[in-house]
Amino acid sequence: MQITIHGEELQLLAEHAIYLPKRKTLWVADALLGKPAHTKTGNWMAPDMVDADIIRLSNLLKEYDVEKLVFVGHLFYYAYADKRTSPGEWLATQELEVHWINGHEHDAEPMHYAKFNLTIHDGCYTDGPFVFMNEYDAATAQQFEDKFIISANANPAYEDDKTGQLLPCFYFTDGHAILPSFGNMKGLKLMQRQNPTDRFYPINATAVLNPIVSV
């Protein structure tokens, strides 16, 4: 699904990410890298366990011409203490410009991420006509009236009128967008339309569906 925001082409991907071909940039929200390989007891599984979300992300990097990777929201499942953690080691091997817009105290310990090829932004990060923030805040957004806000930490959903099924979605207003969780985030948040022009882009197992513009 291709849309245009502030003159920029955005490709909404069924893998719960957005690719900008002009900027060769991939946006990923709430990646939660490491969660599939983490046990309920808090202990890591065997080192050769493969993180399914890293495989998905690797496949996207191979499929698209990506030079910059922007993470917003929860990047890792928890603040790592083990230097062998595969998600961080995987990031360190990527020949990419990697940014993380972080808004969670339990994630914000630079000592854990010094070797992970990350530029960490506490608060907001501006890239061209876009401003990234961990969670949308109207007061903060007013500081960037000429920009388009990208946020996370909500895992937005649209309710299908016919089936009642909740589908993850990209949620766009005239001034900001909330991205779906890339990782295995629990629960979906049903989004309520604030304005007639708000757009839902539902995602099924294989594709991003046509936008739901009004009801």
Briefly summarize what is shown.
The protein has 215 residues and is mainly β. It is built from 3 helices and 15 strands.
Features:
215 residues; mainly beta; 7-stranded mixed beta sheet; 3 helices; 15 strands
Please explain how this structure is put together.
With 215 residues, this protein is mainly beta. 11% of the residues lie in helices and 31% in strands. The strands form two sheets. Strands 8, 9, 10, 11, 12, 13, 14 and 15 form an eight-stranded mixed beta sheet that branches. Strand 9, helix 3 and strand 10 form a beta-alpha-beta unit. The protein is globular and about 45 Å long.
Describe the main β-sheet briefly: 8 strands, mixed
| Terminal-residue CA separation | 21 Å
Q: What structural category characterises the helix and strand content?
A: mainly beta
Q: Flag low-confidence runs.
A: 38-49, 79-84
The share of residues in helices is 10-25%
What's the alpha carbon Rg, rounded to whole Å? Answer: 17 Å
Estimate the strand proportion.
25-35%
Number of strands: 15
Count every helix, treating DSSP H or I runs of 4 or more residues as helices. 3
Order of helices and strands: EEEEHEHEEEEHEEEEEE
| Average pLDDT score | 82
What is the general shape? Answer: globular
